[in-house]
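Backbone shape codes:
===
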Amino acid sequence: MLSSQSKPSTNQTMASFSSTFLSLALLFILLGASNAQLTTNYYSSACPQLFPTVKSVIESAVKKEARMGASILRLFFHDCFVNGCDGSLLLDDTPTFTGEKMSKTNNGSARGFEVIDQIKFAVEKVCPGVVSCADILAIAARDGVVSLGGPNWEVKLGRKDSRIASIRKANKDIPKPSSRLFTLVSKFANKGLSAKDMVALSGAHTIGMAQCVNFRSHIYNDSIIDGSFANWIKSVCPKNSGSGDTNLAPLDLQTPASFDNEFFKNLMSNKGLLHSDQELFNGGFADSLVKFYSDNSMAFFSDFVTAMIKMGDISPLTGNNGEIRKNCRVVN
């Protein structure tokens, strides 16, 4: 028989139970915070002026240079494909830190960082320390598309900014302009995106420009290209490597500053500027989707929006993970 000293009192039992309950409750709260879901109304109370602030800067930038809409959209794509949509691409190199800007797929071609800086500066004025650079990039990508006549959608928010970057993964995970169809499918599948998502997202090449170094082999060596189109592009892209490497040509020759479905019509005429683009219409499974989108711009817009939202969901940092950078180029 236990002595009275060894028997826990009712108060002690209740206190122990309460302590355990509170500890478990706190654990679940922390777990919930670290695995929080993105939502479209994340900043509705904390930063109600967020959307008009971003929109104003983007519209001004696109009005000044239509290509900027495509450049910002490309930043978002390249950011999301490396460790998720966490703003890691925006980080500058330092003597002790290597970012992703100097990777093979970004060096000399990724652009628009100064526009993101302008947006961040404007957002910090209306709600300091609240909105992440990763979320700013997501909104800016949407607004760039809309500014060029493309579809609108509600952007899911709540991402935090990464404190790290990976040039190795940037070199490995981002598809190259020389990619074959099966490689494109594989790289998108690795990010949880379907083949249909891949084709729809490739339709982003209805806007923007590409550098000669990225399409030289296609126009001089490939057979899956319209002859007259190739000859025209050759006039801006010399055959010899190192000559005119940064010369530009429109990804969509017909309407390079308008977000529409002309890109898919070009592919059906073998007028894709990049080898990877023409691979979408080259006797494979994607041919039917290309034809479908070329005939139905609304279907393309709808599937593009679906794919953009899915891409924006790739491995975001939420809750207690990551940070809200004060300057998008450096960690706090």
